[in-house]
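Worked example 2:
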Amino acid sequence: MDLTRPYPPEPYSLLPAVPTFLLTSDDVVAGAPMDIRHSQDGANQSPQLSWSGVPPETRALAISCFDPDAPTPAGFWHWTVLNLPVTLTSVPRDFGNPSGPLPPGAVRARNDGGTLGFIGAAPPPGDHPHRYYFAVHALDGPVDVPDGIGCTPAAFMSIFRTIARATLVPTYQR
Protein backbone atom coordinates (compact mmCIF):
# COMPACT_ATOMS: atom_id res chain seq x y z
CA MET A 1 0.00 0.00 0.00
CA ASP A 2 1.26 3.47 -0.86
CA LEU A 3 1.16 5.64 2.28
CA THR A 4 2.22 8.86 0.53
CA ARG A 5 0.39 11.75 2.16
CA PRO A 6 1.14 15.23 3.52
CA TYR A 7 2.43 15.76 7.03
CA PRO A 8 -0.35 16.91 9.38
CA PRO A 9 0.13 20.20 11.23
CA GLU A 10 1.67 20.36 14.69
CA PRO A 11 -1.28 19.15 16.80
CA TYR A 12 -1.11 21.74 19.58
CA SER A 13 -1.08 24.60 17.05
CA LEU A 14 -4.75 23.81 16.41
CA LEU A 15 -5.72 24.43 20.06
CA PRO A 16 -6.00 27.65 22.06
CA ALA A 17 -2.52 29.09 22.62
CA VAL A 18 -1.02 28.71 26.10
CA PRO A 19 2.37 29.70 27.54
CA THR A 20 5.23 27.23 27.27
CA PHE A 21 7.91 25.99 29.66
CA LEU A 22 11.02 23.81 29.30
CA LEU A 23 10.88 20.04 28.63
CA THR A 24 14.10 18.03 28.28
CA SER A 25 15.13 14.39 28.26
CA ASP A 26 18.20 12.25 28.83
CA ASP A 27 16.76 9.80 26.27
CA VAL A 28 15.25 11.71 23.34
CA VAL A 29 16.22 14.83 21.38
CA ALA A 30 13.90 17.14 19.46
CA GLY A 31 13.99 16.31 15.75
CA ALA A 32 16.27 13.30 16.19
CA PRO A 33 15.39 9.61 15.81
CA MET A 34 14.43 7.85 19.05
CA ASP A 35 16.39 4.87 20.25
CA ILE A 36 14.76 1.51 19.51
CA ARG A 37 14.12 0.98 23.24
CA HIS A 38 11.25 3.52 22.96
CA SER A 39 9.57 1.51 20.22
CA GLN A 40 7.58 -1.69 19.98
CA ASP A 41 10.61 -3.12 18.13
CA GLY A 42 12.63 -2.69 21.33
CA ALA A 43 11.85 -2.45 25.05
CA ASN A 44 8.63 -0.40 24.68
CA GLN A 45 9.87 2.05 27.34
CA SER A 46 8.75 5.64 27.77
CA PRO A 47 11.71 8.04 27.81
CA GLN A 48 13.02 9.93 30.81
CA LEU A 49 11.51 13.45 30.90
CA SER A 50 12.36 16.55 32.98
CA TRP A 51 10.65 19.94 33.04
CA SER A 52 10.98 23.33 34.66
CA GLY A 53 9.26 26.69 34.60
CA VAL A 54 5.66 25.60 35.12
CA PRO A 55 3.43 28.52 36.10
CA PRO A 56 3.06 29.06 39.87
CA GLU A 57 -0.72 28.61 39.60
CA THR A 58 -0.26 25.01 38.34
CA ARG A 59 -2.21 22.55 40.53
CA ALA A 60 -1.66 19.28 38.60
CA LEU A 61 0.32 17.94 35.66
CA ALA A 62 -0.38 15.59 32.77
CA ILE A 63 2.03 13.79 30.44
CA SER A 64 1.14 12.56 26.98
CA CYS A 65 2.64 11.21 23.77
CA PHE A 66 0.85 11.63 20.44
CA ASP A 67 1.82 10.64 16.87
CA PRO A 68 -0.03 12.91 14.42
CA ASP A 69 1.61 11.11 11.47
CA ALA A 70 -0.09 7.75 11.96
CA PRO A 71 -2.08 6.82 8.83
CA THR A 72 -5.45 7.44 10.48
CA PRO A 73 -7.76 10.46 10.37
CA ALA A 74 -6.97 11.16 14.05
CA GLY A 75 -3.32 10.21 14.64
CA PHE A 76 -2.36 7.73 17.37
CA TRP A 77 -2.19 8.27 21.14
CA HIS A 78 0.73 6.42 22.75
CA TRP A 79 0.41 7.59 26.35
CA THR A 80 -1.46 9.82 28.78
CA VAL A 81 -1.26 10.09 32.54
CA LEU A 82 -3.24 12.78 34.34
CA ASN A 83 -3.36 14.40 37.76
CA LEU A 84 0.32 14.09 38.60
CA PRO A 85 1.44 16.22 41.57
CA VAL A 86 2.79 19.67 40.78
CA THR A 87 5.87 18.87 42.87
CA LEU A 88 6.97 16.36 40.24
CA THR A 89 9.71 17.78 37.97
CA SER A 90 10.78 14.62 36.14
CA VAL A 91 9.89 11.02 35.44
CA PRO A 92 12.39 8.20 34.91
CA ARG A 93 12.67 6.02 31.84
CA ASP A 94 9.83 3.45 31.77
CA PHE A 95 7.56 5.58 33.99
CA GLY A 96 4.86 4.72 31.45
CA ASN A 97 5.05 1.02 32.34
CA PRO A 98 1.44 0.02 33.06
CA SER A 99 2.49 -2.10 36.04
CA GLY A 100 4.63 0.63 37.58
CA PRO A 101 3.50 2.72 40.55
CA LEU A 102 1.83 6.11 40.15
CA PRO A 103 1.54 8.91 42.70
CA PRO A 104 -1.76 8.98 44.62
CA GLY A 105 -4.58 10.52 42.57
CA ALA A 106 -2.86 10.02 39.20
CA VAL A 107 -4.92 8.46 36.41
CA ARG A 108 -3.70 6.32 33.51
CA ALA A 109 -5.52 6.63 30.21
CA ARG A 110 -5.96 3.80 27.72
CA ASN A 111 -3.74 4.37 24.66
CA ASP A 112 -4.91 3.76 21.09
CA GLY A 113 -3.44 0.27 21.27
CA GLY A 114 -6.07 -0.47 23.94
CA THR A 115 -3.70 -0.79 26.90
CA LEU A 116 -2.89 1.38 29.92
CA GLY A 117 0.44 3.13 30.02
CA PHE A 118 2.99 3.81 27.29
CA ILE A 119 2.98 1.91 24.00
CA GLY A 120 6.13 2.42 21.96
CA ALA A 121 6.56 3.80 18.47
CA ALA A 122 5.55 1.46 15.64
CA PRO A 123 5.00 3.34 12.38
CA PRO A 124 4.25 1.22 9.32
CA PRO A 125 7.46 -0.14 7.76
CA GLY A 126 8.63 2.08 4.91
CA ASP A 127 6.50 5.06 6.00
CA HIS A 128 8.09 8.49 6.40
CA PRO A 129 9.54 9.38 9.83
CA HIS A 130 6.79 9.89 12.40
CA ARG A 131 6.88 12.68 14.99
CA TYR A 132 6.18 11.78 18.62
CA TYR A 133 4.85 14.75 20.61
CA PHE A 134 5.84 14.17 24.22
CA ALA A 135 4.04 16.87 26.18
CA VAL A 136 3.80 17.95 29.79
CA HIS A 137 0.64 19.92 30.46
CA ALA A 138 0.37 22.32 33.42
CA LEU A 139 -3.22 22.18 34.71
CA ASP A 140 -5.13 24.59 36.93
CA GLY A 141 -6.57 21.60 38.80
CA PRO A 142 -7.08 17.86 38.53
CA VAL A 143 -9.10 16.49 35.62
CA ASP A 144 -12.15 14.56 36.81
CA VAL A 145 -11.84 11.38 34.73
CA PRO A 146 -11.78 7.69 35.66
CA ASP A 147 -8.70 5.50 35.47
CA GLY A 148 -8.69 3.77 32.06
CA ILE A 149 -10.43 6.57 30.13
CA GLY A 150 -9.29 6.77 26.51
CA CYS A 151 -6.50 9.19 25.63
CA THR A 152 -8.71 11.18 23.25
CA PRO A 153 -11.42 12.01 25.83
CA ALA A 154 -8.67 12.58 28.42
CA ALA A 155 -7.05 15.12 26.07
CA PHE A 156 -10.42 16.78 25.46
CA MET A 157 -11.14 17.10 29.18
CA SER A 158 -7.64 18.37 30.00
CA ILE A 159 -7.77 21.15 27.38
CA PHE A 160 -10.17 23.05 29.65
CA ARG A 161 -7.66 22.91 32.52
CA THR A 162 -4.42 23.49 30.57
CA ILE A 163 -2.65 26.74 31.48
CA ALA A 164 0.76 25.96 29.93
CA ARG A 165 2.37 23.19 27.88
CA ALA A 166 5.88 21.99 27.03
CA THR A 167 6.65 19.65 24.13
CA LEU A 168 9.61 17.61 22.96
CA VAL A 169 9.31 15.97 19.52
CA PRO A 170 11.68 13.17 18.48
CA THR A 171 11.03 10.94 15.46
CA TYR A 172 10.98 7.24 14.64
CA GLN A 173 10.95 5.31 11.36
CA ARG A 174 11.05 1.64 10.47
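The two ends are 15 Å apart (CA to CA). The CA atoms of residues 109 and 149 lie 5 Å apart.
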